[in-house]
Structures are given as C-alpha cells and as structure tokens.
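Dear Dr. H.,

I hope your travels went smoothly. While you were away I took the liberty of generating a structure for the chain from your last submission, since the lab meeting agenda had it listed for discussion. I wanted you to have the full record in hand beforehand rather than looking at slides cold. The sequence, exactly as received, is reproduced here:
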Amino acid sequence: MKENTETIIAMLEELLTVSKSRQASQSGCTNMDITSIKALIEEAGRRNHERTEAELAKFAHGIVDCLNTVNNRIDRIARREQPDFGEIRQLLEQTDEGRSIARKHLRAGRPL
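The corresponding predicted structure, in token form, is as follows:
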C-alpha cells in the first residue's frame, strides 16, 4: 500500500517538474504546491489500509468463533460413551461449506 502511495507521489512530483519547466518557458510562473495533494493521497491510503485491516480482523474473528463452536460440539460428542459420527460428519461438512463461502467472498473482494 505504501509503495503505491509513494509511486503516485513520485509521479505527481515528476509531472509537476515537467509542468513547471513548461510554464517557466511560457509565462515565468512556477509557484505550484502539491503538498495538499500528497496529504490527500497519503490519507486515502491510510484509510484504505485501516478499513482492510478491520475487515480482515472481523473475518478472522468469525472464523475463530465457528471453529470454537465446532470444537466444543466435537468435545461434547467425544465425552459420550458412543460418539455420533454422523453428527461429527455433519459438523465437518458445515465447516467446509463455511470455508467455501469465505473463499468466494475473498476471491470476489467483498467483505464478509
């Protein structure tokens, strides 16, 4: 993310340099400040980074909750004298479905 921002700022500075040299040769005016543009680009990059981090944290929390639920249910089943392997199989299939849905969301670039 930071590399993209730095590349954009470098391109802006190069464009400003070219523009200044053209303006100087045509009118003598070279006073152009891109500090505010740099600040806007950096702020947008920071906000995008924060939003992405928040979405990833939310996604990871959801996955951890699902896995904890499955583990708790398997523990309950394992404590019985004769475990119900059908129920274990069903829980594992539900987990696989959840992973499949999560993968689809991630590939599509959509938040969960």
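Two observations you may find useful: The CA atoms of residues 66 and 87 lie 16 Å apart. DSSP finds three helices and no strands in the chain.

With kind regards,
E. W.
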